[in-house]
Amino acid sequence: MSTTDPAALAATIAAVLAATQSEPAPAAAPATVLTVEEAADRLKVRRSLIYSQLRSGELRSIRLGRRRLIPAAEVDHIISEAA
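User: That's the sequence. What structure does it adopt?
Assistant: Structure tokens below.
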């Protein structure tokens, strides 16, 4: 392909666009860990209740530096128990 040939360049661009538009975008992976605020939002409770459950051991968390991350499975488990 010559870069000076407009027809060939247009055909190449069209082929690349068609290939990228036909591939579906990958689905976003669900969050595997939640912040305290995200967990509170999902459970529709205050952050203080989440911290209380973390202190009492009712809710497991992962400590990353100063942050507490809560496995989404823990929150899902609480929701399924309440149902």
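The two ends are 64 Å apart (CA to CA).
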